[in-house]
């Protein structure tokens, strides 16, 4: 069984692009969520040792997900993947516990240094 990875984005295309950017040889079990509520359900079910989280989603935003995860004391490597590249957004997600911020569109070249930095991939 691979490492549980959760990919959260309201865009099916964005989820597919992120999954395609993951290392081919990485032993992971991928779960997808199209909104914040589904993301939290998957997270609570143990499907998110690593969470790739979009910020801009209808209903519950990525910020809301981060706030809930932090309030519940749950533990995961949360990597935000967003087109919202404003310095305030980046600072806010870091303050809420995200370990990294990757600008969209995500590519393997953007993703690999983050995974290696945190020992998530060799």
Q: Main traits of this protein?
A:
globular, 40% helix, 122 residues, 21% strand, 5 strands, alpha/beta, 5 helices, five-stranded parallel β-sheet
Describe the protein's architecture and organization.
With 122 residues, this protein is α/β, with parallel strands linked by helices. Helices cover 40% and strands 21% of the residues. It has five helices and five strands. It has helices at 12-21, 36-44, 62-72, 87-95, 108-117; strands spanning 3-8, 28-33, 50-53, 77-82, 100-103. Strands 2-1-3-4-5 form a five-stranded parallel beta sheet, sandwiched between helices. Helix 2 (36-44) packs parallel to helix 3 (62-72). It is globular and about 35 Å long. The two termini are 18 Å apart. The model has no long low-confidence stretch (mean pLDDT 94).
How would you summarize what this structure contains?
This protein is of the alpha/beta class and 122 residues long.
Number of strands: 5
Taking the alpha carbons of the first and last residues, their distance comes to 18 Å
DSSP summary: helix tally:
5
Mean pLDDT: 94
| Residues in β-strands, percent | 15-25%
CA radius of gyration is: 13 Å
- Largest sheet geometry: 5 strands, parallel
Helix content estimate = 40-55%
Q: Which outline best applies?
A: globular
What is the subunit organization of this protein? single chain
By secondary-structure content and strand pairing, the structural class works out as alpha/beta
N to C succession of SSEs: EHEHEHEHEH
Describe the strand arrangement of the main beta sheet, using strand numbers: 2-1-3-4-5
Q: Give unreliable regions as ranges.
A: none
